[in-house]
Amino acid sequence: MIQMKALSIRQPWVELILSCKKTIELRTWNTKFRGRFLIHASKTIDKQYAKQFNLDIKTFKIGAILGSAVLKDVIMYASADSFLDDKYRHLSEHFVKTPIYGFVLKNVQVFDKPIDQKGQLGFFNVKV
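Structure (tokenized):
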């Protein structure tokens, strides 16, 4: 077994990341971590966004690790203009406070089978 970092993300954002439609994950906090991490689908679903993207919440897997990605870089959005310039990458129009951090994701991999896992805040360690 090895230990890897994991990050809990709400649905439908996980589905949009795994389908490579969302390439920046937004956070209110920064990280120095770079590298491959596990993508954990939290048990909370952002239903309004699922509807906005025409996704069926009944198909969402939650409470499990569904894939992995490489955190390549972090972008700090200090203004609404810079935030909206990347809207096509993070899929959000709601710039609520400064700064917002965009975790730039690359090399997304989808796992064949979900791995049941309890989520946590921030990056957390998982043995796989």
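The chain has a mean pLDDT of 94. Residues 3-127 form a domain with the Archaeosine Trna-guanine Transglycosylase; Chain: A, domain 4 fold (CATH 2.30.130.30).
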